[in-house]
Design brief:
41% strand, globular, three-stranded antiparallel beta sheet, two-stranded antiparallel ribbon, mainly beta, 78 residues
């Protein structure tokens, strides 16, 4: 159902869901800039902003895909 949410080439999963208690999947762009984050499926943006906490997401977007499914895109440049 979900597509790969990062444009560009040479990106990879740098931290897997569940790895050492990690609650997400991190995708590295190997330092490339200007790479687009794409919604993994059709949906509606329900929240976007800046998260500044102990384990900060930085710039983030939450997309609601319906049926109780939501995706969080974090550590974004803008």
């Amino acid at each position: 159902m979900f597509a790969w949410p990062v444009g560009g080439s040479n990106n990879y999963i740098s931290y897997e869901f569940g790895q050492n208690g990690h609650l997400g999947t991190d995708i590295s762009t190997r330092g490339q800039t200007g790479i687009s984050a794409l919604a993994a499926a059709d949906g509606t943006i329900i929240q976007a902003g800046w998260h500044d906490h102990r384990f900060s997401y930085g710039n983030y977007i939450i997309v609601d895909h319906g049926g109780g499914l939501r995706t969080l895109y974090a550590h974004l440049n803008q």
